[in-house]
Design goal:
The protein is mainly α and about 450 residues long. It contains 20 helices and 4 strands. The chain is elongated, with a radius of gyration of 28 Å. The structure holds iron/sulfur cluster. Iron/sulfur cluster binds near residues 386, 431, 433 and 445.
Length: about 450
C-alpha cells in the first residue's frame, strides 16, 4: 500500500462539534480513492450481511458491524451516511427475500453515523469504543428502533408493538459488552498497520493493552457473561412445550392476517384451476397479469379444450415453461371427456388431470369448492416446519401432520395464514424474526438455528 502523507499528517479532532471536522469529512467525498474504498466497504457489507458469529444459544453478532465500524472510522460521517443508504438499497435490490427491511435503513444510517462520529479522525480509546457501542445498542437499537417497529406493526399488521419487551432489552444488554470487547480487539488489530501504511492519521491508536484497558475489558466481559445468563434464563422461562403452543400459533396467525386470502384472481373453478396451474414457480402477481387475456379469449373449459398449446403459450409465456400451456389444454380436454366440462372437486379426480399435483388439487378444492384442504407449497412447508406445527422433510408428510395439528375448520385459513407469513416475514433465507409476532412460540427460533439479533437486520 502506498503511503499517503496527507492522511498520515491529518489533524485529529477531540470531538465532531467543529466546522473543521465537518469540512474534513466533506472533503473525503471529493477524494476518489476514498470513494473507491467506500465502495469496497459497501460490497463487503452486502456480502457479509447474513454472516454472523454465534455468541450463545440464540444470540449472534452480525459480522457486518465490524466492517461498518472500520469503514466509518476511515471515511467519516458524510460518506458513512451515503454508504449505509447505498448498501441497504443495493442489498434489498439484490436480495429481495434477504435480511433487508426498508424501515431499518434508518437505523443502518444512524449506526454508521454513530461509528463515524466516534472514530473518524479521533484518538480511539477503549472508552470511546464502549461509548459508541452503548449509543448504538441503547439509542439506535432501542430508542430509535422502537418507534419504527411501532409504526410497522400499526401500519402493516394493524397491531400494537410491545414497547417494553424484556428479552429485546436484555439482548441488547448482552450484546453491548460482548460487542464492545470484540470491537476493541478488532480495531486494536487493524489501526496500527493502517497507520503504518499511511492510510490513517498518526496518533489514533490509544487502544494499547495497558493495565487500565485490560481491567476495562475484564469488567465488560463479566457484565457480558452476567447479562448472557440472565438472557438465557429469560428465554427458557418463555419457551413452552410445543403441544401447548399450536393453538397460540394459530391464534396469532389469525390475528396477524385476518384478511389472508388467495392472491390469485379468478371467479370460478375453471379459472381457479388455470391460475393455480400457472402459479407453479411463478409469482401470483405475474399470473394475475396474464390471466385476464387468457380468461377473455378462453372463457371456459370447452374453449380451452378446443385450443392448442401453441396458441395458448404466447399468453402464458411469462409464467414459465411451455409444458404449462400443454398441461392446461390437456387437463381441459380430459375434463371435457371425463367430467362433461365441469371441473371435478375431489382430490383423486383432480390429481388425475395432467399437470395437476396434490398441491394444486388441494388449492382448487379449498378455494373453488370450499372443501377443507391443506395445500402445502414452499411457504407452507417451510413456515409450518419452522413453527413446529409439522416436523417433516417432505410436503406429503407435512400435509398429513398439519391435518392432525390444525382443526379441520381452520385448514383453509391456515393455508393462507402460513403463505402470508412466509411471504411477508418468515422468508426462506433470512426469516425476519426481529419483526415476527411468533418468536415466543416458534420451535425454529427456540432451537436457535437462525435467530438474528434484533439489530442484525442492520450491520450495527
Ligand atoms: S420466529 Fe423467525 S423462524 Fe419463527 S416463524 Fe417467525 S420469522 Fe419464522
Amino acid at each position: 500500500m502506498q503511503k499517503n502523507p496527507v492522511v498520515s499528517n491529518a489533524r485529529l479532532f477531540r470531538s465532531p462539534f467543529s466546522k473543521e471536522y465537518w469540512r474534513a469529512a466533506l472533503a473525503e467525498f471529493r477524494n476518489l480513492k476514498m470513494l473507491l474504498f467506500a465502495a469496497l466497504i459497501v460490497a463487503l457489507r452486502i456480502a457479509l450481511k447474513s454472516v454472523s458469529i454465534p455468541v450463545a444459544a440464540d444470540l449472534r453478532i452480525g459480522v457486518g458491524f465490524f466492517v461498518n465500524a472500520f469503514g466509518s472510522m476511515v471515511y467519516g460521517p458524510v460518506i458513512a451516511i451515503a454508504g449505509a443508504a447505498v448498501s441497504d438499497t443495493l442489498g434489498a435490490l439484490l436480495f429481495p427475500s434477504g435480511p433487508y427491511f426498508p424501515l431499518f435503513m434508518i437505523t443502518e444510517i444512524a449506526g454508521s453515523l454513530v461509528f463515524a462520529l466516534f472514530f473518524y479522525r479521533a484518538e480511539i480509546t477503549s472508552l470511546r469504543v464502549i461509548l459508541s457501542r452503548f449509543c448504538i445498542d441503547f439509542f439506535v437499537n432501542i430508542v430509535l428502533q422502537t418507534p419504527i417497529m411501532m409504526a410497522y406493526y400499526q401500519i402493516m399488521l394493524g397491531k400494537s408493538y410491545k414497547i417494553f419487551h424484556l428479552p429485546r432489552i436484555i439482548k441488547n444488554l448482552v450484546m453491548f459488552p460482548v460487542e464492545s470487547v470484540l470491537l476493541i480487539l478488532f480495531l486494536r488489530l487493524l489501526i496500527p498497520p493502517m497507520t503504518q501504511a499511511g492510510q490513517l492519521p498518526k496518533g489514533m491508536n490509544k487502544l494499547a493493552f495497558t493495565r487500565k484497558n485490560i481491567i476495562v475489558l475484564a469488567v465488560l466481559t463479566l457484565i457480558g457473561v452476567a447479562a448472557l445468563i440472565l438472557y438465557i434464563r429469560t428465554r427458557r422461562k418463555k419457551a413452552k412445550p410445543m403441544n401447548d403452543t399450536r393453538q397460540d400459533i394459530l391464534r396469532v396467525l389469525a390475528e396477524t392476517y385476518p384478511d389472508a386470502k388467495p392472491e390469485l384472481n379468478f371467479s370460478n373453478p375453471y379459472e381457479t384451476l388455470v391460475a393455480v396451474m400457472l402459479s407453479a414457480q411463478c409469482t401470483d402477481k405475474q399470473v394475475n397479469k396474464v390471466t385476464p387475456a387468457v380468461f377473455r379469449d378462453f372463457p371456459d373449459v370447452a374453449s380451452m379444450a378446443a385450443a392448442d398449446a401453441d396458441t395458448l403459450y404466447p399468453y402464458v409465456k411469462s409464467c414459465g415453461f411451455k409444458s404449462k400451456s400443454q398441461n392446461i389444454v390437456a387437463a381441459c380436454r380430459m375434463i371435457m371427456e371425463r367430467y362433461g366440462g365441469a371441473v371435478p372437486s375431489t382430490l383423486e379426480e383432480l390429481t388425475s388431470l395432467p399437470g395437476v399435483g396434490r398441491k394444486t388439487a388441494n388449492v382448487v378444492m379449498a378455494v373453488a369448492f370450499g372443501k377443507p384442504a391443506i395445500a402445502v407449497d414452499t411457504h407452507v412447508f417451510r413456515v409450518s416446519n419452522r413453527l413446529g406445527l409439522a416436523q417433516a422433510d417432505n410436503v406429503l408428510d407435512t400435509e398429513m401432520q398439519l391435518r392432525e395439528a390444525i382443526p379441520e375448520s381452520d385448514w383453509n385459513h391456515a393455508h393462507h395464514w402460513l403463505i402470508f407469513h412466509g411471504r411477508r416475514v418468515c422468508s426462506a433465507r433470512n426469516p425476519k424474526c426481529s419483526i415476527c409476532p411468533l418468536t415466543g412460540l416458534c420451535a425454529y427460533y427456540h432451537a436457535q438455528k437462525e435467530t438474528p439479533h434484533e439489530s442484525n437486520t442492520a450491520s450495527l
